[in-house]
């Protein structure tokens, strides 16, 4: 049975998802607090064309006051979604209901932090300019602006990066002390060749960091286990009402009783309980009732956990972040934007120093794959035995990551 967690500090949460090491762990930080207010954490998406979605901290541009773009190829409608402490998936579900388009027709590059003001691009199949403009300020949790058309949908990962504005409050240090400590941290990172590029807590859930457990159940096709993991475990940052509803379901396995007191703000739990109330023990059907995007994210979350675990294992064996090991794959980086190119090298004793020099200069990077059914690591790749050991410990076969043939899960 899924278990609940006692209160955990930030580092305990990190350890739960494979984040076990920090390159500058021995250095004193500046302490302080972040995310006291939504405006303390602003996220602006940067498109693949290096355009910053600046409406995250700018004035609202009401599309109702703008002229509709000229008729042309309207295969997809594109818009900017600005959120105020709201979940991306919840926003898309709300918009889909308001304009009468299935949520599966929407796509975006990635989910932004909930506890923030964020802006990102979204596409939806078809011409929905007028419908989107009509609801542009329909919900206090988000705004819709910059509506236009495009011939291609945005896909997961279709972004150059994100730009962050972060305010740290209540730092009990002088300005000189803050400068000295941050300078030392940056100099140490540069000297050691950077930091460990883990997937952060957002990938696993900041309030309920168990998305990876749901994902593992889905990979194993343990549908009941996935549903129970979504409904039963409680975490310290949840509301009393949510914890009470979860405990009712844990103790009674009565979806109707749990649904009666489950906060409706818990959108996915409500969907599961509604389905189980009318279709008892239909665990797979309950999962299929969820937005397909969110089900895929659970699987990605588990893959991200395995990635974090392999990064930690590599660092425990070798703390050199710069020198590639024989068998490592190294990608050259674009000189203008720093993105990975398709030029790849397999490290050997003959080119090891050359590739290490490129990495030190920021011209190359060691490539670490995310495990999946279509990913094949050469036996000589140093990450291969690390992944093999972690998969054995998890009792998972790599082939299990292949999506099922008979439905939309996976």
Q: Brief description of this entry?
A:
The protein is α+β, with helices and mostly antiparallel strands and 410 residues long. It contains 13 helices and 9 strands.
Structure notes:
This protein folds into 3 domains: 143 residues, Hypothetical Protein Yqey, Chain: A, domain1 (Orthogonal Bundle), CATH 1.10.1510; 125 residues, Alpha-Beta Plaits; 81 residues, no CATH class. 36% of the residues lie in helices and 14% in strands. It contains 13 helices and 9 strands. A hairpin with a 6-residue loop joins β7 and β8. α5 packs antiparallel against α6 and α5 packs across α11. The longest helix is centred in the C-terminal third of the chain and has 26 residues. The chain is globular and about 60 Å long. The model has no long low-confidence stretch (mean pLDDT 89).
User: Would you give the CATH topology of the largest domain?
Assistant: Hypothetical Protein Yqey, Chain: A, domain1
Q: What does the oligomeric state look like here?
A: single chain
H/I helix tally: 13
Helix content: 25-40%
What proportion of the residues form beta strands (DSSP E)?
5-15%
């Amino acid at each position: 049975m899924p278990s609940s967690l006692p209160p955990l500090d930030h580092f305990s949460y990190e350890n739960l998802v494979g984040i076990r090491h920090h390159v500058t762990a021995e250095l004193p930080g500046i302490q302080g607090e972040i995310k006291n207010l939504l405006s303390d954490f602003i996220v602006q998406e940067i498109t693949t064309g290096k355009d910053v979605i600046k409406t995250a901290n700018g004035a609202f541009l009401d599309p109702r006051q703008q002229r509709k773009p000229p008729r042309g190829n309207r295969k997809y409608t594109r818009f900017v979604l600005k959120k105020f402490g709201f979940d991306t998936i919840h926003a898309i579900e709300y918009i889909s209901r308001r304009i009468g388009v299935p949520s599966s027709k929407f796509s975006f590059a990635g989910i932004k932090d909930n506890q923030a003001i964020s802006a990102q691009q979204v596409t939806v199949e078809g011409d929905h300019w007028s419908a989107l403009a009509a609801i542009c300020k329909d919900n206090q949790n988000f705004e819709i602006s910059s509506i236009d058309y495009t011939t291609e949908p945005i896909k997961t990962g279709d972004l150059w990066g994100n730009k962050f504005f972060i305010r740290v409050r209540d730092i009990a240090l002088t300005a000189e002390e803050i400068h000295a400590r941050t300078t030392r941290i940056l100099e140490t990172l540069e000297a050691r060749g950077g930091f460990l590029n883990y997937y952060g807590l957002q990938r696993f859930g900041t309030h309920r960091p168990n998305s990876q457990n749901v994902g593992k159940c889905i990979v194993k096709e343990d549908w009941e286990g996935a549903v129970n993991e979504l409904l039963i475990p409680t975490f310290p940052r949840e509301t009393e009402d949510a914890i009470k509803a979860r405990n009712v379901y844990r103790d009674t396995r009565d979806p109707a009783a749990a649904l009666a007191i489950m906060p409706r703000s818990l959108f996915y739990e409500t969907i599961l309980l509604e389905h189980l109330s009318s279709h008892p023990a239909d665990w797979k059907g309950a999962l299929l009732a969820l937005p397909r995007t969110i089900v895929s994210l659970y699987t990605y979350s588990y893959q991200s956990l395995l990635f974090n675990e392999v990064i930690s294992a590599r660092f425990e064996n070798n703390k050199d972040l710069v020198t590639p090991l024989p068998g490592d794959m190294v990608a050259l980086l674009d000189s203008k934007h720093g993105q990975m190119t398709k030029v790849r090298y397999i490290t050997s004793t003959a080119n090891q120093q050359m590739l290490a020099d490129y990495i030190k200069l920021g011209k190359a990077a060691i490539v670490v794959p995310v495990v999946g059914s279509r990913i094949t690591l050469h036996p000589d790749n140093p990450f291969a035995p690390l992944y093999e050991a972690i998969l054995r410990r998890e009792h998972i076969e790599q082939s299990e990551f292949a999506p099922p043939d008979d439905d939309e899960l996976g």
